[in-house]
Amino acid sequence: MSERAPSERLLRILILEDNLADAELVERELHKGGFQFTTKRVAAKDAFSQALSDFRPDLILADHSLPSFDGLTGLQLAQKKCPETPFIFLSRTLGEETAIESLKAGATDYILKDRLARLVPAARRAIQQAREHDELKRAEEALLNNMQKFQAVVESARDAIVSANAAGCVAACNSRAEVLFGYAAREILGKPLTLLMPERFRAPYLQGLAGFLETREPHVIGKIVELAGLRKEGTEFPIELSLSTWTIGGERFFTAIIRDISERKQVEAQLKTTRDQLTDAARLESVGLLAAGLAHDIKNPLAILQQGIEFLNSRIPPADRAGQSTLQEMNTAILNADAVLRQLLDFATLSSVEMSPGDLAPVVENALSLVHHKCVSDHVTIVKEIAPDLARVKMDPGRMEQVLVNLFLNAVQAMPNGGTL
Hints:
Strand content: 15-25%
Number of helices: 12
Distance between the termini: 120 Å
Order of helices and strands: EHEHEHEHEHEEHHHEEEHHEHEEHE
Shape: rod-shaped
């Protein structure tokens, strides 16, 4: 079986050896073991240091004792320039203490020159370990890079992101969560997630967590729900929450993406108010149309009655006081009914307030005439005291008359046993 570097190129083996014959024995042994390689042999410190940079070896085989410097010094140089490269000592005599010292210093292995049969398996193991270490390092770097990218995405998110473990304790959060809830990350990491929710949500949350861990049946996970969050100072605010779950290393975690929807709720409330106002306006318009229709339907019969009264008045002599009194009462009733109809028509056609200076006295008189019948039937006596020099008032006469009528009727209703208005 041949050995190659991960890129399928020839292995580069740097041999630190002053004895050419020993170096050739080493190469022969490696060829026998199936290695495909190229070598560079050096014996001096400077040449060894240069080769570490230029040759960039995949494996270093070094004699422990050299005329110009020792193998431990070579090991130290190698650890500085290429610390990931496996380093195997070769020696004719290497005591146990020296061997242990070499391994502690960072050597991968040591081989006695009279036992080169161990070289191939030792070299193969060392190269394999170096490859695995390199792959692990690259995987760790890739993981770290991905984690940094993920963290950058999390930190740049406009929504709060909070993760909790299976015990319901906060495991991580982004800066937006700190701003939203008012806590620094160090204040909530490791604390129960219930710290961020109002009291009324805590028991249901703990029950749901326990139920999911037991049955793995999601009720909220994967859905968007509206709840309430609790800030550090104790105020609540509406939130929209999306919950997901994941596992790493056999441990389960839950991540919530949380959005403050306070502004949205305010807009929704404003829209509801506007919608209700439009509904009321539409209802009032319908009532107005109905009132206009009723006023039109009743006004015609009243006109006929008025004509009848005028006809009877021409037939009943003035001396007939009883007849004249009855006609007067009928005429007054028709005038009152006509005033009510005019009020209905005003209500039906009233679209805007038209403010202008005017006399308040006639408006009061008209309002009192509209409630006169109600006062008589409820045994309420009307007493009028209107100053002759009453100042003019800026008003809408129709609107003012409606206000006064409402005030008068409320006063009459407050006197069930009669009284004075």
